[in-house]
Amino acid sequence: MEEPSSAHEPREHHRRARPVTRLIGGVIAVAAIGVAAFGSISSASAGQDITSSLTIVAPAAAGGGWDTVAREMQQAQRANGLTANVQVVNMPGAGGTIALGNMTRLEGRANTILVGGTGLLAATIQYGSAATLDDVTPLAVLFDEYDVIVVPADSPYETLDDLVAAWQADPGAVPWTGGGSFDQLVVTDLALAAGIDPVDTTYISSDGGGEAVAALLNGTAQAAAGGYPDNIDQIESGRLRALALIAEEPVAGIDISTAREQGYDVTLANWRMLAAPAAITDEETAQLTELIEDSVATPEWESAVGRYHWSEHFIVGPDVAAFLQTERERITRLYEEMGQ
Questions:
Q1: What's the distance, CA 204 to chain centroid?
Q2: In this structure, are residues 189 and 335 in contact, taking their beta carbons and an 8 Å threshold?
Q3: Do residues 292 and 110 lie in contact, with contact meaning Cβ atoms separated by under 8 Å?
Q4: How many whole angstroms separate alpha carbon 322 and alpha carbon 269?
Q5: What backbone torsions phi and psi does residue 116 show, to the nearest 5 degrees?
Q6: Domains (ranges, CATH) in the chain?
Q7: Of 65, 266, 6, 310, nearest to 149 (Cα)?
Q8: pLDDT in tens, 326-339
Q9: Stated pTM of the model
């Protein structure tokens, strides 16, 4: 997906503020984990060459989307001898901002790279993070992963229009869920496309895609936005009904009409990226960029792209910074529409 500007302009009427939920105790706990992991990275990375030793930081627990990217990148490099030693370190917490903050303490150490994406950018805005993507060296945008709008198989909503009609009639009476901050952004953008004030929407935040599916199936929520790879098994098994794919255009291999095809111009993609610490040299930036380009050209990475239904969206060089600025403006506007 390219980075088009949203067609929706913020409305001028008064917005009711909705506080951002902050799980302070949990953040402190994961911060402690992050600092411990950071200590091992810092000591291991000193004086190391990129091709002899590389650490890929996944800013979330094992098993999630960022972790998948890190481990598939690791496998591609190992299988093809691109680095002599590559390890993955998980550093969860606060939507990825714990890992991002720790990366700022690795200035000049080019043999550590961080996985990020739409969710990490969103978290820096949502939590008012002291560390932002301006404090690291963006290297590449890798691909897009698309959300899908789903309802339980026995839902009365047969189409996206059915769901939107009920939502418009009583926005608070159609509870939504999703597995992360990105999913809430998608619901917000869909609300705007449907002429619904996002502040009036009931959104139940779930801790991951599995919890979101459970909320749908037990009746806590009536609709959800979630990553297509996270929902494909439930869709194919008949437990969930897919109403729309959130993508700029139809995606080969995914037989679900886009929201745009159905009249709702919602195209926000969950892109994934890689970044290095700040203050690395131009030569090191070029070396890391070449390593990433070589990694995504391997059969192992190409297999992962097909397996996880990723859509190629590869950007390197100065265009990465321009892309991130456009996305930052777009996501900031969506949070403003949420009243946050």
A1: 18
A2: no
A3: no
A4: 16
A5: -150, -160
A6: 24-144+271-337 (3.40.190.150), 147-246 (3.40.190.10)
A7: 266
A8: 999 999 999 999 98
A9: 0.82
